[in-house]
Amino acid sequence: MTFKPIKLNNLCFKIVHILFKQKRKNTNIIMFWVLLAAIPGVAVQIYFFSIGTLYQIILAILTALIAETITCYLRKQSIIRVLKNHSALVTALLLGVSVPPLASWWIIILGTTFSIIIAKQCFGGLGQNLFNPAMIGYVVVLISFPIQMTSWLPPKELQSFDINWLDSLLLILIDSTLEGITIDTLRTGIDGMSQATPLESFKTGFLTDVISNILQKPLIQGKITRIGWQWVNLAYLLGGLIMLNRRIITWHIPASILTVLALFSTMSGFLDHHDYSTPLIQMLSGSTMLGAFFIATDPVTASTTPKGRLIYGSLIGTLVWLIRVYGDYPDGIAFAVLLTNMIVPLLDYYTRPCKYKHNL
């Protein structure tokens, strides 16, 4: 009986292959972990801004699954295989938490349909789209229906009316409760003033007030326990740390976004603290943490190289600050991500790793 000698190079190749296979994460696993990591943020958002957020997510998921099924059928693709990657669920989730919780039902359906059919499937499906599908749908409805898309409720502690699950559902479906309460009524806080988000308060407040007075308003006062937006951002930060721990995403993009945003807000505060919001408000208001960890890190539309990711995130952080301070919109995450998506191929080309002094 003879034994064939084992070649060392073949043995090493098999070991490396096994190790690589064990560490490899399929698309459906990555998307599933994104969904799990978003649970803390979604739960806190529901607590502070009503169960309407859950209804919006459900509507977005149903719309995304139907739109994905129809497009796959028309393109003669395997419907089960496409739906199993969970990418449609992630897009629906991001849209569901981005729209106001009591926005009319057709807002989320229109935005989700545009995201799946136009922004994703018309480009060839998952892996072929140039722009983040969720942000494309969000920007379409934001520009088309600015009043509905900025009708956010004040946090729970500042709401003048208590609404239950049925009231929230009726407001989404028919824009009114059984008692005749509308979204405009609910936006009136306990002080009798129409409430806005913290970023909207800074955006519009400077027209009639100074920052020292704006900071004293209940919505954005210094006590962190009274501000729903800060807890929502901290919850999404927790979800982002979970994804970092599971190596679903890398640190480059969120770290560069938050660092640049904090740097610009700190520098502007030193230059003129009367006309700029504080770094704490910039970091923990709006969709900062959601954008940094869940939106900008999209593996398809973000840069794929370490240096490219750092530049990509830095550009997003810069654009977010510029739009928030000088633009017409209070929160610039969606616009910043889409604008930076345009230059991702250029970033990947010029930040390619080199081997033996030759570009790969």
Describe how the helices and strands are arranged.
Elements: H1 8-23, H2 27-37, H3 39-49, H4 52-74, H5 79-83, H6 87-98, H7 105-120, H8 133-144, H9 146-149, H10 165-174, H11 183-186, H12 198-205, H13 211-214, H14 228-245, H15 252-271, H16 279-283, H17 288-295, H18 306-326, H19 333-341, H20 344-350, E1 354-355, E2 358-359
Antiparallel strand pairs: 1-2
Helix pairs in contact: 2-6, 2-14, 3-14, 4-6, 4-7, 6-7, 6-8, 7-8, 8-19, 14-17, 15-17, 15-18, 18-19, 18-20
Give an account of the 3D structure:
By secondary structure, the chain is an all-alpha fold. It has 20 helices and two strands. The protein has a two-stranded antiparallel sheet. A hairpin with a 2-residue loop joins β1 and β2 (about 360). α8 (about 135-145) crosses α19 (about 335-340). It starts with 7 loop residues before the first helix and ends with a strand. The model is unreliable at about 1-10, about 15-25, about 190-195 and about 205-225 (pLDDT under 50).
What's this model, at a glance?
This protein is mainly alpha-helical. It contains 20 helices and two strands. Strand 1 and strand 2 (358-359) form a beta hairpin.
Poorly predicted segments = 1-8, 13-23, 190-195, 205-226
DSSP E strands, number: 2
Give the helix level as a range of percent. Answer: 55-70%
Radius of gyration: 23 Å
Tally of separate helices: 20
Order of helices and strands: HHHHHHHHHHHHHHHHHHHHEE
The largest sheet has its strands arranged as 1-2
Strand content: under 5%
Q: What's the mean pLDDT score?
A: 81
**Class based on secondary structure composition and strand pairing:** mainly alpha
How would the global form be characterised? Answer: globular
The main pleated sheet reads as: 2 strands, antiparallel
N- and C-termini, Cα separation: 47 Å
